[in-house]
TrEMBL record, chain A:
Protein name: Succinate dehydrogenase/fumarate reductase iron-sulfur subunit
Keywords tagged on the record: 2Fe-2S, 4Fe-4S, Iron, Iron-sulfur, Metal-binding, Oxidoreductase
Stored InterPro entries: 2Fe-2S_ferredoxin-like_sf, 2Fe-2S_ferredoxin-type, 2Fe2S_fd_BS, 4Fe4S_Fe-S-bd, Beta-grasp_dom_sf, Helical_ferredxn, SDH/FRD_Iron-Sulfur, Succ_DH/fum_Rdtase_Fe-S
Pathway: Carbohydrate metabolism; tricarboxylic acid cycle
CDD domains, per database record: fer2
Alphabetical list of NCBIfam families matching this protein: dhsB, PRK12386.1
Cofactor(s) this protein requires: [3Fe-4S] cluster; [2Fe-2S] cluster; [4Fe-4S] cluster
Domain of life: Bacteria
TrEMBL record, chain B:
Alphabetically ordered keywords of this record: Flavoprotein, Oxidoreductase
Name this polypeptide is given: Fumarate reductase/succinate dehydrogenase flavoprotein subunit
Span of domain Fumarate reductase/succinate dehydrogenase flavoprotein-like C-terminal: 486-578
Superkingdom, taxonomy of origin: Bacteria
PANTHER family in alphabetical order: SUCCINATE DEHYDROGENASE 2 FLAVOPROTEIN SUBUNIT, SUCCINATE DEHYDROGENASE [UBIQUINONE] FLAVOPROTEIN SUBUNIT, MITOCHONDRIAL
SUPFAM superfamilies, A to Z: FAD/NAD(P)-binding domain, Succinate dehydrogenase/fumarate reductase flavoprotein C-terminal domain, Succinate dehydrogenase/fumarate reductase flavoprotein, catalytic domain
Residues annotated as domain FAD-dependent oxidoreductase 2 FAD-binding: 10-430
Organism: Streptomyces antimicrobicus
InterPro entries: FAD-dep_OxRdtase_2_FAD-bd, FAD/NAD-bd_sf, Fum_R/Succ_DH_flav-like_C_sf, Fum_Rdtase/Succ_DH_flav-like_C, SdhA/FrdA/AprA, Succ_DH/fumarate_Rdtase_cat_sf
């Protein structure tokens, strides 16, 4: 096993302010950034605040910005950096800091509540649902989302525009609208709920100008823009003119 | 007196994994104002890591399946120590619990005729696991989370308040269950973000806190699994059952060191993956125990035919219950036939084309590619046993999930004991969460509705709980580092009470646990109360030490090998031990000396298995399991 000392620069502080602090810390073969943060806790900074859970890329808790890029700490291997490099870890920029690497992500939970839930079809008892695999594939892709909120963090509609937060649900929750809209048995329409229209009017779909930043940072590799947001815009187009849909259909290369 | 915020609820659910959320949904739908309190963010619970599926005998893939077959498989998997009434209810109700999820928006993988697809798994006679690729736990947690949001949306419409009747207190920890005499009166909690204390007053509390894996070094469990509910129950006076049974999942990652223990789903074997040693031999054929001889293939050719023609061939031995496979891997490595990093080889690359592997096992593909530079579509994985699940847990009434001796206290999911006997089958955990989560929520709500006079919360108990929680900030000189204590505890349990156990080592472990208890009383932390992980760990240590004492004591007492309890010095399963439960009671009153034992062990005879359930088995099979006197009854 090989071991070396890495240089880390980690943001420490709280809502009142803080600063980057330098650390030198041991690294072993095969480790990820979260291992190093844990070693710091155990040896140099017992009260260093970090959120984490599964350490296997499945729960989406340990989101942070590593050298400025939104990533999961548990899925960022140390071998992707040179040994000379100083690695900077900062909290998610789009959300208010609670302490150190922990941010207040309640924005996302508030947005989740604004999306009307799945509407079960009338007249089908539990156990009577029939759906073809090909018809559930697309919504299943969106349900792979681990709610790490990296897409919400990187989306420039809100990243540096606090004022847009009230009107914009963000990629994760627009994708949730798309997921329900594409669910083969969702009966929203029968109940008078037009999900396409609400995407536009209630969740701020029009703010999205399909720069695909969300897709780039998604640790699950979900094609958020191509498979969720653009189709949602196209479906919404009957209801409302959106010049970006026209643009999107010209510039995106997507499989149907 | 400590000034703490106090709120009134009907039911408090501790834990927001599958069992906790299902309990909360049920309690709320039965009219109880329900609070859920959880250590992580809402939707991040350990349930998201469940991969393979939910076992339910819907019979969508093989019509031969029904609750009786599922019941039989569960009892065999648990080596007949299961609380049989739980196994019966579980097998009967699991299909309804799965179908219900579809009405809440879950999207399972489908059969060609559009029904829920079901996959093969170890110990299950038929394809039985409803699944979504290898991320079934995520689908389960997200569906329950979204159902809770839907109920909150209803309340918003009705009362203008999302949290009028159902509220999730996320990133909060419960350190004590409070009591009024015998009865539950609420919980003492702290908010992780601020360190602020608060009390939830309620006549009914459901423990749904999951397991204990963080007491072991190599584990598939997340940081949350510190045995909180087990300890809360004991501290409130409720006993634990059969804590010696700890499941080591046969296939965890073994390399690189930082991912050691992370789970490799059993679906790899369910979908045709085979285990080989360093000689290239499929060694599982050498490890089929007598009780399973008739049900498993004897040759590779027969095992390979089973995937296409299960009606005329027997199953491959890679699909034996987990305890058998874990022991076999352990034995191969010990015999010097292991892989370079101390595991064995698990290979699915020769069974299926690359594209199919990526579709059926996407997160395994991703996990190995990203974390170990291994392409599982082209090369074998290296795997070895990892601490995964505790079968032991809070003793409960089978029908109501009520604990013993503490009215108003319920337990469901992994924290509850009995359901799985000495070994749990894969897929039976997610179904357990749903079946008994619902039952716990139902009975807790009914209990709360009956409590016309609310139990009173005692100020003295609040003060004591606050003082206990603040102790790590007042450690004297020579304070112990909680991280160091935790590492030593994990090493102790791993080395001395691990997958293979010996009397001398377990006695040594009890000595070490005693010394750790003394040192943990001096655990100290720096900084302040705001989101301070060192402090949180110092508080969790109490629970891990208590639970570890239970595991070590019970393991030392049970002088046989059964399921998730393997004694090198007592290698046989003894029929005389079949009707014996080992129950851990708290020492009453709790001793002031930290070195003193916290629990005492009591042997208890199991309730005789109901005759119509026994009649589901052949006599020849029962003779292998039941004690002599049980056969005459």
């Amino acid at each position: 096993m090989t071991t070396y000392d890495a240089r880390f620069r980690i943001w420490r502080g709280d809502a009142d302010g803080g600063e980057l602090r330098d650390f030198t810390v041991e690294v072993h073969d095969g480790e990820v950034v979260l291992d190093i943060v844990h070693r710091l806790q155990a040896t140099q900074a017992a009260d260093l605040a970090v959120r984490w859970n599964c350490k296997a890329g499945k729960c989406g808790s340990c989101s942070a910005e590593i050298n400025g890029r939104p990533r999961l700490m548990c899925m960022t291997r140390m071998s992707t950096f040179s040994r000379e490099e100083t690695i900077t870890v900062t909290p998610l920029r789009a959300f208010p800091v609670v302490r150190d690497l922990v941010t207040d992500v309640s924005f996302n939970y508030a947005k989740a509540r604004e999306v009307p839930a799945f509407v079960p079809p009338q007249g089908l008892a539990p156990g009577e649902y029939r759906m073809q695999q090909v018809d559930v594939d697309r919504s299943q892709e969106f349900r792979k989302c681990i709610e790490c909120f990296l897409c919400q963090d990187t989306c420039h509609v809100v990243r540096d525009h606090e004022e847009n937060k009230a009107a914009f649900a963000g990629p994760r929750f627009l994708m949730r609208v798309a997921e329900l809209d594409m669910h083969p048995l969702d009966a929203a329409e029968a109940e008078g709920l037009d999900r396409k229209r609400t995407a536009q009017e209630d969740h701020g779909l029009g703010y999205c100008n399909i720069t695909k930043c969300c897709t780039e940072v998604c640790p699950e590799g979900i094609k958020i823009t191509d498979n969720a947001l653009i189709p949602l815009k196209e479906r919404a187009v009957d209801r409302k003119y959106d010049p970006l849909v026209w643009l999107g259909s010209k510039i995106s290369r997507r499989r149907d | 007196m400590a000034q703490v915020d106090r709120q009134h609820w009907d039911v408090v659910v501790v834990g927001a994994g599958g069992a906790g959320l299902r309990a909360a949904i049920e309690a709320r739908e039965r009219g109880a104002r329900t609070a859920v309190i959880c250590k992580s963010l809402f939707g991040k619970a350990h349930t998201v890591m469940a991969e393979g599926g939910i076992a339910a005998s819907m019979g969508n893939v093989n019509e031969g399946d029904n609750w009786q077959v599922h019941f039989r498989d569960t009892m065999r998997g648990g080596k007949f120590l299961n609380q049989w009434r739980m196994a019966e209810l579980h097998a009967k109700e699991a299909p309804d619990r799965v179908w219900e999820l579809e009405t809440w928006g879950a999207l399972f993988d489908r059969t060609p005729d559009g029904r829920i697809s079901q996959r093969n798994f170890g110990g299950h006679e038929y394809p039985r696991l409803a699944h979504v690729g290898d991320r079934t736990g995520l689908e389960l947690i997200r569906t329950l989370q979204q159902k809770i949001v839907q109920l909150q949306q209803q309340d918003f419409k009705e009362f203008g308040d999302y949290e009028a009747r159902l509220k999730v207190f996320q990133e909060c920890t419960v350190t004590r269950v409070l009591k009024d005499g015998e009865k539950v009166s609420g919980t003492f909690c702290y908010e992780r973000e601020s360190g602020r204390f608060f009390v939830l007053e309620a006549p009914a509390v459901v423990l749904a806190t999951g397991g204990i894996g963080k007491s072991f070094k190599t584990t598939s469990n997340s940081w949350e699994y510190t045995g909180d509910g087990h300890a809360l129950a004991l501290l409130a006076g409720a006993p634990l059952l059969n804590m010696e049974f700890v499941q080591f999942h046969p296939t965890g990652m073994v390399w690189p060191p930082s991912v050691k223990g992370i789970l490799v789903t059993e679906s790899v074997r369910g979908d045709g993956g085979v285990l080989r040693n360093s000689d290239g031999k499929r060694f599982m054929f050498d490890y089929v125990p007598d009780v399973f001889k008739e049900k498993y293939a004897e040759t590779e050719a027969e095992a390979d035919r089973w995937y296409d023609d299960p009606d005329h061939n027997r199953r491959p031995p890679e699909l034996l219950p987990r305890d058998e496979v874990a022991r076999a891997i352990n034995a191969e490595v010990k015999a010097g036939r292991g892989s370079p990093h101390g595991g064995v080889f698990l290979d699915v690359s020769t069974r299926m084309p690359a594209e199919k592997i990526k579709r059926r096992l996407p997160s395994m593909y991703h996990q190995f590619k990203e974390l170990a530079d291994v392409d599982i579509t082209a090369e074998p994985m290296e795997v070895g046993p990892t601490c995964h699940y505790v079968m032991g847990g809070v003793a409960v009434d089978s029908d109501t999930a009520a604990t013993v001796g503490v009215p108003g206290l319920y337990a469901a999911g992994e924290v509850a004991g009995g359901m799985h006997g000495s070994n749990r089958l894969g897929g039976n955990s997610l179904s357990d969460l749903l079946v008994f989560g619902r039952r716990a929520g139902l009975h807790a709500a009914e209990h709360a509705a009956r409590a016309t006079v609310r139990p009173a919360v005692d100020d003295g108990q609040i003060d004591a709980a606050a003082a206990e929680a603040l102790a790590p900030f007042h450690a004297e000189d020579g304070a112990e580092n909680p991280y160091t204590l935790h590492q030593e505890l994990q090493q102790t349990m791993n080395d001395l009470v691990g997958i293979i156990r010996r009397e001398g080592e377990m006695q040594q472990a009890l000595g070490k646990l005693r010394a750790l208890r003394v040192r943990a009383a001096r655990a100290g932390v720096e900084g302040h109360r705001q989101f301070n992980p060192g402090w949180h760990l110092a508080l969790d240590l109490r629970n891990m030490l208590l639970v570890s004492e239970c595991v070590a004591k019970a393991a030392l007492e049970r002088t046989e090998s059964r399921g998730g309890h393997t004694r090198e010095d007592c290698p046989a399963m003894e029929r005389d031990w079949r009707p014996v439960n080992l129950v851990c009671h708290p020492v009453d009153p709790a001793p002031a000396d930290p070195a003193a034992d916290r629990i005492r062990l009591v042997r208890q005879r199991t309730e005789p298995i109901r005759p119509d359930l026994l009649a589901l088995f052949e006599k020849e099979e029962l003779v292998k399991y039941l004690a002599e006197e049980e056969l005459y009854e």
